[in-house]
Amino acid sequence: MSEFTVHSGRPDATGLRIAVVAARFNDAIVELLVRGALGELRRHGGADEDVEVVWVPGAFELPVVLQHLAASGRYDALVALGCVVRGATPHFDHVAGQAAAGTAAVARETGVPIAFGVLTTDTWEQAVERSGGKLGNKGAEAALTAVETARLLQAL
């Protein structure tokens, strides 16, 4: 039986240029996600001078800013962070769906890896649990995903 070639990304942010794009809406939660992402990047060798944080008004605005940053050629990876909590109207579905679809389209079109760390929760409590509570920090997870994907693409 032959040996298969296996490729995977390394969790090493050393020298990677990364932008964290964060939505201000529900900023109490998003600030925790940003702190988690920045801490994870530092833990994995990322230097402060190689990381930028860009704030946008809300999750709906993430794709257009991600597109601009990805097209600039200045970044090895991007991290999209936000928090959309379900309300009494279908607004949640439209915002969350467009943020996710737009982000995925930018990554496909540009080839720049974008980790999607936008929380889409039914309640504020669920958002708290995912921004540093008992379910961890999804911002930190997204940052590590961006790093590993960037390294994987470099290796391929």
Tag the structure with descriptive keywords.
single chain; 156 residues; alpha/beta; Rossmann fold; four-stranded parallel beta sheet; two-stranded antiparallel sheet; 5 helices; 6 strands; 22% strand; globular
Short description:
Helices cover about 45% and strands about 20% of the residues. The protein is of the alpha/beta class. It has a domain at about 50-155: Lumazine/riboflavin synthase (Rossmann fold, 3-Layer(aba) Sandwich), CATH 3.40.50.
Task: Characterise the protein shown here.
The chain has a domain at 49-155: Lumazine/riboflavin synthase (Rossmann fold). 47% of the residues lie in helices and 22% in strands. It contains five helices and six strands, in the order βαβαβαβαββα. Strands 2-1-3-4 form a four-stranded parallel beta sheet, with helices on both faces. It has a two-stranded antiparallel sheet with strand order 5-6. Helix 2 (62-72) packs parallel to helix 3 (91-110). The longest helix is centred in the middle third of the chain and has 20 residues, at 91-110. The relative contact order is 0.24. The model has no long low-confidence stretch (mean pLDDT 94).
Summing up helix and strand content along with how strands pair, one would put the structural category as alpha/beta
Largest sheet: 4 strands, parallel
- CATH architectural designation of the domain at 49-155: 3-Layer(aba) Sandwich
Outline: globular
Helical residue percent?
A: 40-55%
Spell out the helices and strands N to C: EHEHEHEHEEH
